[in-house]
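One thing: can you check what follows?
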Amino acid sequence: MKWVTRARPKTDRIACPWLIRRFIDPEAEFLFVPKDDVLAAADRENATSFDAAGARYTHRGNQCTFEVLVEDHGLADKDPALGEMARIVHAADIEAEESTHPFGAAISAIGTAGLDVESDDHRLLERGMFVYDALYAWCLRNAHA
């Protein structure tokens, strides 16, 4: 399945593809387009839109897109480590909530600075996958602590 979002992904737009590939759609293909083209690209490519205005999956209330995906797919119920991941991504993605998790500022900084060190969005995503794999491993270690 194809998934489409805004170009120059950081934080939520790296965390969501990680979640999608690891828990929802292992064969997912991601398209990064200008923010005003997300919905048209989704229609044209028969893709699922995310983290953009009017997208199928986007911020809902005070939830970031990662949290919406976790909730809509019932993933936190099956995996408490994903619930912790959702709290971390929320703190990193929602500026006013950065202090709600000790990792919020660090993950936000990695997401923002990643844009400075990688100009190719697909390469940025691939490099970011390791960060979220490692973060998930930490959450797994601490889920039962």
